[in-house]
């Protein structure tokens, strides 16, 4: 059994005392090696969770533990070495004038020795298939390429968890798929945990666990299959389920045609095949 | 307004090492009142195309016609401002462009620039607030207090307040949650029908193209790759895949049902409930014959 890598214990957060709570009594655990998707309507508190994990924001009440350390002023730099984050807009994240310099930035900040730095830059750019672009200017790259460089910057610091905060939202479907494939491959290779904060319903089908946020509270915590059974509930809080889940739920409305909630077309076709063969 | 592109090419930074041919010999017509989806992957020329629609760019070669307005190389359009009054463009993440201190002032900014009389602006504000489904009570509040989805609605209200007859939408649902996406698209579709607008939607969502558009234009490397009714376009899976575009999930699934069970269920905008019934009935029918 893997251990809890990130833990929220009764966390409350608001921007100031006269403002409403952004997070209300939020508790959950994310285990090492896991892929956890956090979904929720706009303004449900998803992104706040990401910013609390690496200490960009501080909770008013409650405790956040990352790799056994409580997140506070004394531990924040150590925690940021363990937690890599990629945000939505790649253009807001570049500091270097070349791809290589940009990836080097995080390493320089941590005082990594030069030879080691060069090795890590090469490796991480290779991992995201951007090695050929190391001398290019970041702003000349496509959106998907920019996000891959941002991910390389995160990989270079060898984090134990990668958080993608709507990191694929501005990409086209192809770019989105490339990024998710890259990150997921790295996750299994490097045995790190992955937290994706997303609106993309199809993306959550690949996660091990889903945390559904609603108005600052954890609304549901379950596997994708379990989440997809709750179509009506999700719709009442501004979310939805993917096409395959919707059709399966509709097919099951009068009689149990589908025995196991399908995650993809293949599984739904199998279920239909069984239904069609029995009679 | 009818829109036509006649052999339009556009080149960025011509005669320099950075020369880039963004549009190449592009021709198509969009009849007044139609809903057209423009599709293509990143870098295919979609953004360059829409910047021609309100004269932000002029073609390097060829001719763009929007109603009575003509855009050509080397010919300055004298009435560009009135063209922009007729063509409302909702750019990507339009909420980033909000700047006024109240929602009301922000919405009024566009029409005031076009010298619309104050009385007329006052009349339009409640109309556009209703169209984007925002309460009038918030008009005096700063737009920046709102949620992302609401800020986008304010920005859209500002475009609608100019009372355009052509509406250009560049990825209008990017970054919104699923419910917000559906609401915004349903809103545009309703406006399209009620106001008899000509709507041009730039999108990555094949689902939206299928659901809302009468006509689709697919771009690849600045050229027109395919054009036609969405249902016809989506019959050509291989051709789409060659330019890295997918089928809408429902179409893809219906194809696989046909491959697997030999039953054909044509897509005709059926609801999920209708589709489920159809699948069940047809699957039963198949097993009877075995």
UniProtKB/TrEMBL annotation, chain A:
UniProt cross-references to SUPFAM superfamilies, sorted A to Z: P-loop containing nucleoside triphosphate hydrolases
InterPro entries: AAA+_ATPase (IPR003593), ABC_transporter-like_ATP-bd (IPR003439), ABC_transporter-like_CS (IPR017871), ABC_transpr_CbiO/EcfA_su (IPR015856), ECF_ABC_transporter_ATP-bd (IPR050095), EcfA_1 (IPR030947), P-loop_NTPase (IPR027417)
GO annotation, cellular component aspect: ATP-binding cassette (ABC) transporter complex
Flavoprotein listed as a keyword: no
Membrane topology: Peripheral membrane protein
Ranges where the ABC transporter domain occurs: 6-240
Gene3D superfamilies recorded: P-loop containing nucleotide triphosphate hydrolases (3.40.50.300)
Compartment(s) of residence: Cell membrane
GO-annotated molecular function: ATP binding; ATP hydrolysis activity; ATPase-coupled transmembrane transporter activity; cobalt ion transmembrane transporter activity
Alphabetized UniProt keyword annotations: ATP-binding, Cell membrane, Membrane, Nucleotide-binding, Translocase, Transport
PROSITE patterns to which the protein is assigned, alphabetical: ABC_TRANSPORTER_1, ABC_TRANSPORTER_2
Family: Belongs to the ABC transporter superfamily.
Listed name of the protein: Energy-coupling factor transport system ATP-binding protein
Lineage: Bacteria, Bacillati, Bacillota, Bacilli, Bacillales
UniProtKB/TrEMBL annotation, chain B:
Gene Ontology cellular component terms for the protein in this record: ATP-binding cassette (ABC) transporter complex
Signal sequence coordinates: none
Listed CDD domains: ABC_cobalt_CbiO_domain1 (cd03225)
Broadest EC class assigned to this enzyme: translocase
Residue stretches making up the ABC transporter domain: 3-246
Pfam families: ABC_tran
Subcellular locations according to the entry: Cell membrane
A molecular function GO annotation: ATPase-coupled transmembrane transporter activity
Membrane topology: Peripheral membrane protein
Predominant place of localization: membrane
Keywords: ATP-binding, Cell membrane, Membrane, Nucleotide-binding, Translocase, Transport
EC number: 7.-.-.-
Superkingdom of origin organism: Bacteria
PANTHER family (alphabetical): ENERGY-COUPLING FACTOR TRANSPORTER ATP-BINDING PROTEIN ECFA2, HEAVY METAL TRANSPORTER
Role of this protein: ATP-binding (A) component of a common energy-coupling factor (ECF) ABC-transporter complex.
Family per record: Belongs to the ABC transporter superfamily. Energy-coupling factor EcfA family.
Subunit and partners: Forms a stable energy-coupling factor (ECF) transporter complex composed of 2 membrane-embedded substrate-binding proteins (S component), 2 ATP-binding proteins (A component) and 2 transmembrane proteins (T component).
Record's protein name: Energy-coupling factor transporter ATP-binding protein EcfA2
Organism: Paraliobacillus ryukyuensis
């Amino acid at each position: 059994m893997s251990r809890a890598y990130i833990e929220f214990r009764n966390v409350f957060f608001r921007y100031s005392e006269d403002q409403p709570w952004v997070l209300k009594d939020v508790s959950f655990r994310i285990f090492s090696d896991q892929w956890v998707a956090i979904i929720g309507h706009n303004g449900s508190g998803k992104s706040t969770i990401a910013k609390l994990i690496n200490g960009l924001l501080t909770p008013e009440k409650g405790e956040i533990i990352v790799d056994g350390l409580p997140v506070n002023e004394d531990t924040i730099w150590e925690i940021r070495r363990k937690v890599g984050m990629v945000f939505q807009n790649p253009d807001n994240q570049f500091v270097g004038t070349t791809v290589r310099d940009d990836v080097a930035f995080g390493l320089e900040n941590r005082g990594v020795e030069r030879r080691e730095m060069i090795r890590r830059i090469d490796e991480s750019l290779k991992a995201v298939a951007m090695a050929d672009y190391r001398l290019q200017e970041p702003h000349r790259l496509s959106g998907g390429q920019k996000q891959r460089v941002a991910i390389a910057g995160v990989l270079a610091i060898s984090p134990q968890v990668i958080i993608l905060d709507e990191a694929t939202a501005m990409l086209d479907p192809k770019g989105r798929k490339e990024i998710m494939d890259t990150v997921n491959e790295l996750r299994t290779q490097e045995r790190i945990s992955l937290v994706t904060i997303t609106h993309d319903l199809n993306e959550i089908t690949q996660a091990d666990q889903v945390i559904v946020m609603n108005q600052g509270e954890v609304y549901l915590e379950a596997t994708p299959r379990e989440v997809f059974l709750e179509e009506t509930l999700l719709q009442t809080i501004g979310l939805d389920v993917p096409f395959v889940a919707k059709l399966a739920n509709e097919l099951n409305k009068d009689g149990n045609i589908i025995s196991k909630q399908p995650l993809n077309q293949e599984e739904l076709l199998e279920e239909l095949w069984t239904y069609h063969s029995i009679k | 307004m009818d829109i036509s592109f006649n052999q339009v090419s556009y080149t960025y930074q011509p005669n320099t090492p950075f020369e880039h041919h963004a549009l190449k010999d592009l021709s198509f017509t969009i009849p007044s009142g139609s809903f057209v989806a423009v599709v293509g992957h990143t870098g295919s020329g979609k953004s360059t195309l829409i910047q021609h629609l309100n004269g932000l760019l002029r073609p390097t070669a060829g001719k763009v016609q929007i109603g009575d307005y003509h855009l050509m190389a080397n010919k300055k359009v004298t009435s560009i401002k009135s063209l922009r009054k007729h063509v409302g463009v909702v750019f990507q993440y339009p909420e980033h462009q909000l700047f006024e201190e109240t929602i009301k002032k922000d919405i009024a900014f566009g029409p005031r620039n076009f010298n619309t009389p104050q009385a007329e602006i006052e009349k339009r504000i409640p109309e556009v607030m209703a169209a984007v489904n925002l309460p009038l009570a918030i008009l005096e509040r700063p737009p920046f207090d709102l949620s992302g989805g609401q800020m986008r609605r304010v920005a859209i209200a500002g475009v609608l307040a100019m009372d355009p007859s052509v509406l250009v939408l560049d990825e209008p649902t990017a970054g919104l949650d699923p419910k917000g996406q559906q609401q915004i698209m349903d809103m545009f579709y309703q406006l399209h029908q009620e106001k008899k607008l000509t709507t041009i939607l730039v999108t990555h969502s094949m689902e939206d193209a299928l659901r809302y558009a009468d006509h689709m234009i697919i771009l690849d490397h600045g050229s027109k790759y395919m054009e036609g009714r969405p249902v016809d376009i989506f019959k050509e899976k291989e051709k789409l895949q060659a330019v890295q575009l997918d089928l809408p999930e429902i179409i893809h699934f219906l194809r696989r049902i046909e491959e697997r069970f030999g039953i054909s269920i044509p897509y005709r905008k059926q609801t999920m409930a209708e589709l489920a019934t159809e699948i069940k009935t047809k699957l039963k029918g198949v097993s009877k014959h075995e």
